[in-house]
Inverse folding.
């Protein structure tokens, strides 16, 4: 039986369901990807956007610590337990550490945004620009950290949060909505 592990600190749930799920279908066939729970590991908030008639099968695991790489450590530990029980595993992550354990029973699927996607440097001006671009004409639209993740592909959600927390004019709410202070 196949299990799926998502490192949602560097590949968001939205990116998984929009781009990566198709790749996994090919890996785990004939097992049905829609009936396979996605073990989602995170040490930050997870944003799931509403979409009409959308169905997700997620198991969410929050890290006990905010230490860097605690999500990766949890995934490695639980993948080891799963493989020891005779399961096969798909890890969805861009972290290089998972390449070390790739084998017949462990497949690592990466998602790298296309070359024409946004690759901005994490700076205040770029955050403000991204907020304006995402909102477009709808100035009341909430923009979350996971929305910004698509603009700052080299950064994880905790990295983006930490940078915004260091700014005076921009803030992040408890529900991960990013806003500019007046």
């Amino acid at each position: 039986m196949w299990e799926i592990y998502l490192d949602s600190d560097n590949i968001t749930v939205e990116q998984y369901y929009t781009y990566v799920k198709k790749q996994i279908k090919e890996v785990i066939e004939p097992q049905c990807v829609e009936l396979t729970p996605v073990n989602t590991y995170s040490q930050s908030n997870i944003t799931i956007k509403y979409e009409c008639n959308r169905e997700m099968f997620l198991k969410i695991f929050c890290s006990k610590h905010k230490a860097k790489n605690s999500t990766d450590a949890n995934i490695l530990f639980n993948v080891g337990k799963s493989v020891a029980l005779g399961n096969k595993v798909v890890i969805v992550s861009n972290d290089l550490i998972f390449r070390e354990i790739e084998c017949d029973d462990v497949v690592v699927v990466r998602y790298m945004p296309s070359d024409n996607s946004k690759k901005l440097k994490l700076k205040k001006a770029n955050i403000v620009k991204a907020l304006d671009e995402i909102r477009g004409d709808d100035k009341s639209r909430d923009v979350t950290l996971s929305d910004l993740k698509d603009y700052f592909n080299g950064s994880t959600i905790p990295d983006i949060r930490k940078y915004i927390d260091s700014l005076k004019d921009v803030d992040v709410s408890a529900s991960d909505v990013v806003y500019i202070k007046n």
Notes: The two ends are 53 Å apart (CA to CA). Residues 43 and 114 are 26 Å apart (CA to CA).
